[in-house]
Specification:
By secondary structure, the chain is mainly α. The protein has a domain of 61 residues. It is built from 3 helices and 2 strands, in the order ααββα. A two-stranded antiparallel ribbon has the order 1-2. Helix 2 packs across helix 3.
Length: 100
């Protein structure tokens, strides 16, 4: 993780504590943390911590970062598909032109 403790903007803490919190959330997994967050919002919105020592705000920021990363990967995948389709169309056009 180089010098930066977590790969997303957070106002809760920095350094080793942020890294520890992030690793704790990563171990739980996005689906589980999302479910715990939803349960927290419904049943215990006044509770400050989501998992052990991880503040709810940090978990919310972590979930938002994962969602943004997922969207970014999807966008990049779509771009690659479009470029490949364009290359195939151009190649077919050149082949058709040379044959015809």
């Amino acid at each position: 993780m180089s010098d930066q403790s977590v790969p997303f903007e957070n106002r809760w803490t920095s350094g080793e504590e942020a890294r520890h919190w992030m690793l704790r959330l990563e171990r739980e997994g996005v689906k589980n943390v999302r479910a715990m967050y939803a349960d927290h919002e419904l049943n215990a919105p006044d509770k400050r911590l989501l998992i052990e020592d991880v503040p709810i705000g940090f978990a919310r920021d972590w979930l938002a970062w994962h969602q943004q990363s997922k969207r970014s990967r999807r966008r990049n995948r779509h771009r690659v598909i479009v470029v490949l389709l364009i290359v195939v169309i151009i190649a077919l056009a050149i082949i058709a032109w040379r044959i015809g």
